[in-house]
């Protein structure tokens, strides 16, 4: 089961000064019953808490965790039909699990209570654990928040590289294994780090069920957002027209957004894209959006539409400080024409805002490609290492490299 669900037991043992063993799924293949990040804990009294397979390999995973708890070196073991002992511990569903056994104790993880508190409070935090490399660093961990980090993977260079990539995965709400050179070199091999993100995917709220919304939903999901498209017109707001949206809502935009704010479903990672360019829809929803602490608020429309919209928003009581946060016309100047090109333009501006990018061609800039835009230089949304995740994380990274 997820780390979050066994935290009370882990915290109780940690506070008592006990040492426990943790078996954590770090990779899956085939139809495995648990996702990466699932854990089974071997308590100090020999008890078992959690699950990594729903029953198939629980005994073997508990044995691994208990061995490490008792002093064995942290290590990864593979369970599944490819093993010679598949009959004894194989997965009946035909999948394969890579499970890391590591040790949790107050001495080895002094900031565990702080980490657990962040998880319990729903604050974004990532746990990076070395799963392959020099035996001296396997099992070492680095806790990464958006604005700080704790622990070490053995060298400052490793810590810097992993913290950058962990923040990118955390911003996208993704969990993945990233590989580096032994000292954290980019594009290297020899060091594998499993990054477990404890944050839901960020939200992209798109208002206006037009062709551009369908294209933007596709790009938004590709970048790791949970995309909602909202429109007051049921004729247009349909899943058939918007197949890549995670949800399609028929409601007045401002009313829906107010409800989401009241429910606590809007946070500092949320992006709001208003594509209606019709005053009766976009002015009320923009007035609500600009009053929130969100990552991005943009609106589609011509220069003339933008000026008219600003005047209407002023008449609605929106202050100049809030109006300054509005990106309109939305998107970077790519010369876009089609809905798909426009979606790329919008997504490019969102990425640039997230990491303080300039939006300029790299050939026109001097200095490092990845300029320091956030604490500790966390200026890469998806990481620069090589991920083994089957999600779109790797695809996005390769697109950004090309």
Morphology call: elongated
Question: What is the string of helix and strand elements?
Answer: HEEEHEHEHEEEHEEEHEEHEHEHHEHEH
Measured between the Cα atoms of the first and last residue, the distance is 38 Å
Strand arrangement, major sheet: 8-7-6-10-9-17
Approximately what portion of the residues adopt beta-strand conformation?
A: 15-25%
Low-pLDDT stretches:
81-91, 372-402
The percent range for helix content is 25-40%
Give a structural overview.
This protein is of the alpha/beta class and 402 residues long. 33% of the residues lie in helices and 22% in strands. The chain has 12 helices and 17 strands. Strand 11 (203-207), helix 6 and strand 12 (226-231) form a beta-alpha-beta unit.
Distinctive features:
single chain; 402 residues; alpha/beta; six-stranded antiparallel beta sheet; six-stranded parallel beta sheet; 12 helices; 17 strands; elongated; disordered C terminus; XdhC_CoxI; XdhC_Rossmann_dom; Xanthine dehydrogenase accessory factor; MoCofactor_Util/Proc
